[in-house]
Amino acid sequence: MKNNIIRIAILGIIPLILLYACMDNAISNPEEIIFPESNITYTQHVEPLLRFACNAPGCHNLMDRKANIILDSYEQLLMSYGGLMIRKGDPDNSLLIKIIRREVPHSLIVDYRVNTEQLIGLARWIKDGAPR
Fold this sequence. Notes:
This protein is an all-alpha fold.
């Protein structure tokens, strides 16, 4: 009986530890992702937003590869969809912006995950050449 309680405790604790470790990079409040007026970078601004809006389980992460698109690294983002996801200097013709604006079909509506200021920041980042 005592051994069963210990096994149940261990089996219950391990998933919680793993969950906590995975949540380390999770965004608890996407409104906290703020894009500045200038000097927007992938690492500081774009990556946290994409982690929340595009890389959730079942979407465009390395494990799930929805529609065979991976958006969980700078390189993958630039290569995605044959280089059309981000067209440096041209946000209006970048697929990422078009998806968020609902100008092209997407299986999940993502604009609710990205507020207006974040969309403006993403467009500004692309217009400025999508710096890392």
